[in-house]
Amino acid sequence: MNRVVVGLQWGDEGKGKVVTYLSRYHDFVVRFSGGANAGHTVNYGDFKMVHHLMPSADFSRNVGVAIGSGVLLDPDVFSQEHRELFDKFPGYSGKILISENAHVVLDLHKRFDEMVDQLLRIGTTKRGIGPATADRAMRVSVRLADIDDPEKMKTLLEKNLSLKKMYGLSAELNEIVRRLEGFYQSFREHIVPVLQLKRILEEKSLLFEGTQGVLLDVDVGTYPYVTSTSCSSAGVSAGMGFPVKVDEVVGVFKAYTTRVGEGPFPTELKGKEGELLRETGREYGATTGRPRRCGWLDLPLLKYAIEVAGVDVLVMTKADVLVGFEKVKVCVKYKGEGELLSLKGLERKEPVYETFDGWKSLEDERFARFVSFIEKETGKKIKYVSTGEKVGDMLEV
Ligand code: GDP
Ligand code: IMO
Ligand code: MG
After folding, report:
1. pLDDT digits (tens, 9 = 90+) for 351-371
2. Are 10 and 258 in contact (CB under 8 A)?
């Protein structure tokens, strides 16, 4: 049985924690899009791991991990996380597979990201994801397989560097080659041809780990304030490079909403209430440390994301953060508007709120009412409630 876990807001919904928990039911956790722009914090109780590239599998159970062709692979970040994995789980015996068609992210991409974002003001993570995606589309990017073919790699890099020159950026070709070859040598046993990856995975039960969230998806998100990859459930097969059967789409959402970077956010709370949510929920970016913008749950957007991603079941996270809040608000519609069919004009929408009595604990009747309300409004079951940050803090309902 294959599942995909997707974020239903603007990222940071707690996907890493949920995926780590659910990985006990699967053989492999597989990444299919994004790159080191993701920051998935997993709290094992005694320690935490922040996954940027390494899939969030429960390593204590030896679940295997795989990285598909659609992932933009930063060799430095991957090497560092691979070391951390074996520091924390020295006996880990799961398989680690990387598609040889995955493209690499270079320092040059990160510098370009910094430079371009000063002009475009998307508020990117500066992990080089946009520029690496652009190079892939321009056909001047290096895939892992190309590193094993030095002439081809050099030709690609020469073309790439001459394009970058137009933007006043330069880098030392031999230095890039040296670093990429070093990476390839260290990980060659894990780098597999796409058909080998397909054959290994088709025998297994897979858990696809979404990065970012539906509202950050390049096609269906709040464009241009989005990431550059297909991070919704529709991106799974494209990201693997072969058709994948997904039996269940699991949508993860926070009991409130957060966003990092620029772009519309109708329920954003700018004053003290927003600060209270940020401090109580410790809402600071796992990748950049930036304070996350905070606001109430937005049902029109949640329903949009659920339908666009074809969600079957829901997981609610961070409702524990709202314990002790006297009132909890939910945006139920936008002023003067019917059903939300697209994100067009989102920056001009005005939320209409329904106010709920806050809950004293997650066993409180008032919390049960909040859960039922969301289930009724979305028409989907909340199958799990995450009750805290540790992997085991999970309630199956
Ligand atoms: P991701 O990018 O979707 O994996 O989410 P992040 O890891 O960036 O942000 C979610 C944060 O909330 C992490 O620090 C998690 O450890 C934490 N977290 C996840 N679920 C819960 C929950 O139910 N309650 C609390 N208090 N924290 C949670
Ligand atoms: P996880 O997987 C939250 C946001 C950035 C910016 C926009 C584009 O941890 O949920 P990019 O670097 O991708 O070009 O930035 O997307 N963004 C995220 N926000 N969580 C993430 O990942 C994000 N990945 C990218 O803040 O607004
Ligand atoms: Mg995150």
Report:
1. 999 999 999 999 999 999 999
2. yes
